[in-house]
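Quarterly update from the structural biology core.
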Amino acid sequence: MKTSFVYLLAALAAAGVHMQAQAQQERVWRCGNEYTNNATMAQQRGCKVMEGGNVTIVQGSRPVAAAAASSTSAVRAPAGSPRVEGADQRARDGEARSVLESELKKAEERQAQLLKDYNNGEPEKQGGEARNYQKYLDRVAEMKAEISRNESDIAGIRREIGRLPATR
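Predicted structure, tokenized:
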């Protein structure tokens, strides 16, 4: 019984090797950026036989012409949204610009104060920091992080201002 099982496994292994060899013998042709295993089509198009390693081909989908055309057009408001007149939109843009500019001014003033307090990484010690140096180092690290966050805020506000249409 045991020997027949071994013979069965050997037969299955041999069959698997034979099937793999047959699959590898099938030729694949390269036609520019396309691959095919159709010999007649490859000969008609003058394709070259691929030699060496295995080729894995994943079928892609072709884009729909309408979808491709709409992606290049201007961004439009969703259907059903109210239409805004040009003068109203300019007024909204102007209001947004003034709000952003005031926020930028506040952030820049805050940045100047933070840098003054930070004193190039050596702020004045407060209260118990003279006896607890780690507490001082923690406060300095927090000040540095706050300066970095404020710089990011300023950069973000400037980006938003840059996205607004130019004033006329």
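Strands lie at 29-31, 34-36, 48-49.
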